[in-house]
């Protein structure tokens, strides 16, 4: 096992990784930008190095500076958290070529799966269902038009280098398909230096269900069941839960088995998440594989009792998985609300500033993952998430009641937060019945402005 790890991230996930290291008896080196100099979690580490100015490109995304801190700090491994360098295959390769283990997947698998078209091709090859669409990349406008006519409009143009909703265009007819192809190619070329696109049938009002997977370096692959993540606004998730409500058990088992098959065939190891769209008839389609620990991982930790960050570190150190598929049971119901420093009344604009009052909820069944304390200043330079409020209860109605109680206890002053919209969601009859899809938030609250 490693004796010393560097955490190449900030905020709540930095604290989450620091805690996992402490639980394993591993020393921790932190890095921070000038904007995070006062971050409370820096008191919990063995060493901390400033790696540059607030601007992420000059600090948390700066590979030479992070590698320098790792060398000076004499660590054996780097945990990238999520965002920043977590899905950068070049960073993983640099770490390993410097004899520092990257706590994540092999760089080859990251490179391949980072391309959504290649992930789709691989899924098809191994018999995992994908959305009907193009056989590879679109190279010819006429071929795209023929395909769209064959499968029927609307269709969705997706950038191969995109993901998470970037570089997508819906097309409803020939004209918008031609225009959309050009626009998507240009946008992708500009954003990712790769203008390649592919085509999919547009699935109306899908649910977003994802499967957590763990794979060790000895060929063992298991899933840790699914998370329902449909409640999003502009591709920012608001609420996640496990199990997915109203998902028939045979479908659940099929989706999870498909995720395991894909991860095995990709020669992938460490933690990963397979994203699926699920349509009204409970048909499911693979869309992306996320090669990182995700924000919503604690939902899965609560229902399975497995510490995913500890598992990541053990896998990176070469350990075999300590559990088999039949040992992993989904017990009870976990739900998570992402609490962001944003103003729901002002189109969810980030709302940085000093937190003057911080009264966190607690009590039975409540878990709060946060790096925030009273007096903390939320910097304007990064993602605005300040806490993840989770509940864990035997049943979904009890989980909803517990979340409502916890949201009512939670007092934050000094910055606006997303707590009010969570209170609305957890009082909405369709949500309470588990009738959610990816358009739920927009349909209910966005047209009329909050
Ligand atoms: C789709 C889709 C409908 N049909 N693909 C958005 C982010 C990226 N991960 C894939 N996304 C979508 N792909 C087809 N063929 C609808 C979405 C989508 C979505 C997916 C998951 C969660 C929220 C979403 C919000 C809008 C659109």
CATH names the topology of the largest domain as: D-amino Acid Aminotransferase, Chain A, domain 1
- How confident overall, as mean pLDDT? 97
Characterize the main sheet: 8 strands, antiparallel
* Spatial arrangement of strands, main beta sheet: 13-12-9-10-11-14-21-19
Number of separate strands: 22
* Count of helical regions: 14
CATH superfamily of the largest domain: ATP-grasp fold, B domain
Hetero groups: ligand MV4
Number of domains: 3
What structural class do you assign from the helix and strand content?
alpha+beta
Low-confidence stretches: none
CATH class of the largest domain: Alpha Beta
Examine the secondary-structure arrangement and name the CATH architecture of the largest domain.
Answer: 2-Layer Sandwich
Kindly report how far apart the N and C termini lie. Answer: 50 Å
Q: Report the helical percentage.
A: 25-40%
Overall spatial form = globular
Q: Could you tell me the strand content as a percent range?
A: 25-35%
Topology of this protein?
Elements: E1 4-7, H1 11-23, E2 27-33, E3 47-52, H2 63-73, E4 77-79, H3 89-97, E5 101-102, H4 107-114, H5 116-125, H6 141-151, E6 155-163, E7 166-171, H7 174-192, E8 197-201, E9 207-215, E10 221-233, E11 236-242, H8 249-265, E12 270-278, E13 284-290, H9 297-304, H10 308-316, E14 333-340, E15 342-343, E16 349-350, E17 353-354, E18 357-359, E19 366-370, E20 377-378, E21 385-393, H11 396-409, E22 411-413, H12 419-425, H13 429-432, H14 440-446
Parallel strand pairs: 1-2, 1-4, 2-3, 4-5
Antiparallel strand pairs: 6-7, 6-8, 9-10, 9-12, 10-11, 11-14, 12-13, 14-21, 15-16, 17-20, 18-22, 19-21
Helix pairs in contact: 3-4, 6-7
The structure holds ligand MV4.
């Amino acid at each position: 096992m490693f004796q010393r790890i560097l955490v190449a991230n900030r905020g709540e996930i930095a604290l989450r990784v620091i805690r996992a290291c402490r639980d394993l008896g591993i020393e921790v080196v932190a890095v921070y930008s000038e904007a995070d100099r006062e971050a409370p979690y820096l008191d919990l580490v063995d060493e901390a190095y400033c790696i540059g100015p607030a601007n992420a490109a000059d600090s948390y995304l700066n590979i030479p500076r992070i590698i320098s801190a790792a060398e000076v700090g004499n660590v054996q491994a780097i945990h990238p958290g999520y965002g920043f360098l977590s899905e950068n295959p070049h960073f993983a390769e640099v770490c390993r070529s410097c004899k520092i283990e990257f706590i994540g997947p092999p760089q080859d698998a990251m490179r391949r799966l980072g391309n959504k078209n290649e992930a789709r091709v691989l899924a098809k090859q191994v018999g995992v269902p994908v959305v009907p669409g193009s056989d590879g990349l679109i190279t010819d406008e006429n071929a795209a038009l023929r395909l769209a006519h064959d499968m029927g409009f609307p269709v969705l143009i997706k950038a191969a280098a995109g993901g998470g909703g970037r570089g997508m265009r819906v097309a409803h007819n020939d004209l918008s398909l031609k225009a959309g192809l050009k626009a998507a190619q240009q946008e992708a070329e500009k954003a990712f230096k790769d203008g390649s696109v592919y085509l999919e049938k547009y699935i109306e009002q899908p649910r977003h269900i994802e499967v957590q997977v763990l794979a060790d370096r000895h060929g063992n692959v298991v899933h840790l069941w699914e998370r329902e993540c449909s409640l999003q606004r502009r591709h920012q998730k608001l609420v996640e839960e496990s199990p997915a409500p109203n998902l028939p058990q045979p479908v659940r088992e099929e989706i999870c088995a498909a995720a395991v098959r894909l991860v095995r065939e990709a020669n992938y190891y460490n933690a990963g998440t397979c994203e699926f769209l699920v349509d009204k008839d409970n048909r499911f389609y693979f869309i992306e594989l996320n090669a990182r620990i995700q924000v919503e991982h604690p939902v899965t930790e609560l229902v399975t009792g497995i510490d995913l960050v500890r598992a990541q570190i053990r896998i990176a150190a070469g350990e075999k998985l300590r559990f088999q598929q039949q040992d992993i049971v989904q017990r009870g119901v976990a739900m998570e609300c992402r609490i962001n420093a944003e103003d729901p009344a002002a189109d969810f604009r980030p709302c940085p500033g000093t937190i003057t009052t911080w009264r966190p909820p607690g009590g039975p069944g409540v878990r709060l993952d946060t790096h925030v304390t009273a007096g903390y200043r939320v910097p304007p330079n990064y993602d605005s998430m300040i806490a993840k409020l989770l509940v864990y209860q035997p049943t979904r109605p009890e989980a909803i009641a517990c979340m409502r109680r916890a949201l009512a206890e939670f007092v934050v002053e000094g910055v606006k937060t997303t707590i009010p919209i969570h209170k609305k969601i957890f009082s909405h009859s369709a949500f309470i019945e588990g009738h959610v899809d990816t358009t739920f938030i927009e349909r209910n609250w966005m047209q009329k402005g909050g």
